[in-house]
Amino acid sequence: MMMLGCSLALGASAVHGVNLAAQRGPVQRVVQGKVTDKGDAAVNGAVVYLKDDHTMAVKSFITQADGTYRFGQLAQNTDYELWAESNGKKSSTKTISSFDSKNSFQINLKVDTSK
């Protein structure tokens, strides 16, 4: 009888652990970085675009004076495309894959702003 009581207590503990994990919800991802020009100077006012390859929705962020940008609350199971534009010039496009297990990405973008 004593053995059965122990078994039930362990079972309740395991179920409790599962409930705690479920309460945390899905882990959100973040991508941030800096937009620079060909000479590595920060580009203030560049527009950074983040395209959700599942819904095709595009978010944008205007860089700060130090060229930084940040997008948060990105889904784990979605691929994203990221690029910057300034003065009619565009950076190369970077991809964030749903197969990459990281939750935080540091992606710097370079835009040739020379005329």
Protein described:
- 20% of the residues lie in helices and 37% in strands.
- With 115 residues, the chain is α+β, with helices and mostly antiparallel strands.
- The chain has a single domain (26-110), classed as Sandwich (Immunoglobulin-like).
- Strands 2, 3, 5, 6 and 7 form a 5-stranded antiparallel sheet that branches. Strands 1, 4, 8 and 9 form a 4-stranded mixed sheet that branches.
- A hairpin with a 5-residue loop joins strand 2 and strand 3.
- The radius of gyration is 22 Å and the shape is elongated.
Summary tags:
115 residues; alpha+beta; Immunoglobulin-like; 5-stranded antiparallel beta sheet; 4-stranded mixed beta sheet; 20% helix; 37% strand; disordered N terminus
Spatial shape: elongated
Distance between the termini: 84 Å
CATH architectural group: Sandwich
* Major pleated sheet: 5 strands, antiparallel
Name of the CATH class: Mainly Beta
How many structurally independent domains? 1
Radius of gyration (CA) equals: 22 Å
